[in-house]
Specification:
It is a single chain. The protein is of the alpha/beta class. The protein has a single domain, classed as TIM Barrel. It is 40% helix and 15% strand. Strands 7-6-5-4-3-2-1-8 form an eight-stranded parallel β-sheet. Helix 2 links the parallel strand 2 and strand 3. It is globular, with a radius of gyration of 17 Å.
């Protein structure tokens, strides 16, 4: 089954409103209207409305980096999935390694946020991946099994779910997983998805690689059989670096 590649830019806590809009417009112009790839950007929360306007009518989807699991209430500083949808967001990250390891979000919190995202009618990009210590201990697959387990309740939403494998040891370190490591982990993730949601879901679900993706390694990573795209961090912050990653998508 053919899967449409997805290239996503996670801008994290970077850029001003002006530079976010300029970058969004640059990505929209670069992306054009191709049929061979999807593109989405995840700006900082305070810039969502401005970026939504900048990409309106383009082939670029607007994403949010996080949300709270509740519909509303006394949660100072938080934002709900419904609020994100209201400003034009289409897809939300859940379980990003920085949320797991800096903000101590466990699997149950990731599951709750993921459910809120899907129930609000938004797409979910679930992030999974092991730390260096977990890899060195030979526990990579056990970690992925556990983290992907949150999908067990989401059988009704499979068409709106993608998974980003992001080895924590390769995020922001400049140390990317080799294509072989990426493919091995992605193949395992697809097998786990098949075990949870069935073969059709596994065959159609996009699996992205994230972890120091750049213009030099993107083509080789994206050529792997089970790597369907990239979740890009630092290299997504300017079009000079992000554009070549979009160009690295194989023709499908």
């Amino acid at each position: 089954m053919s899967r449409t590649p997805v290239i996503a830019g996670n801008w994290k806590m970077n850029l001003t409103s002006e530079s976010s809009v300029a970058l969004a417009q640059g990505v929209a112009n670069y992306q054009g209207q191709p049929t061979s790839r999807k593109c989405c950007v995840f700006p900082a929360l305070v810039h969502l409305s401005a970026v939504a306007e900048a990409v309106a009518g383009s082939a670029v989807s607007l994403g949010a980096q996080d949300c709270h699991e509740a519909d509303g209430g006394a949660f100072t500083g938080e934002i709900s999935a419904a609020m994100l949808k209201d400003v034009g967001v289409e897809v939300v990250l859940s379980g990003h390694s920085e949320r797991r390891h800096i903000f101590c979000e466990d699997d149950s919190r990731v599951a709750a946020k993921s459910a809120a995202i899907l129930e609000a009618g938004l797409d979910l990009m679930l992030c999974v991946g092991e730390t260096l210590g977990e890899r060195e201990a030979g526990n990579t697959f056990q970690v992925l099994d556990r983290q992907l387990g949150v999908l067990s309740d989401f059988g009704a939403f499979v068409e709106r779910i993608s998974v980003a494998y992001e080895p924590v040891w390769a995020i922001g370190t400049g140390q990317s997983a080799t294509p072989e490591i990426a493919q091995n982990a992605h193949a395992h993730c697809r097998a786990v998805v098949e075990g949870i949601l069935g073969g059709e879901a596994a065959a159609s679900m996009p699996l992205l690689y994230g972890g120091s993706v750049n213009s030099s390694n993107a083509e080789e990573l994206l050529a792997q059989e089970d790597v369907d795209g990239a979740l890009v961090g630092g290299a997504s912050l300017d079009i000079e670096n992000f554009g070549p990653i979009l160009d690295a998508v194989p023709n499908v």
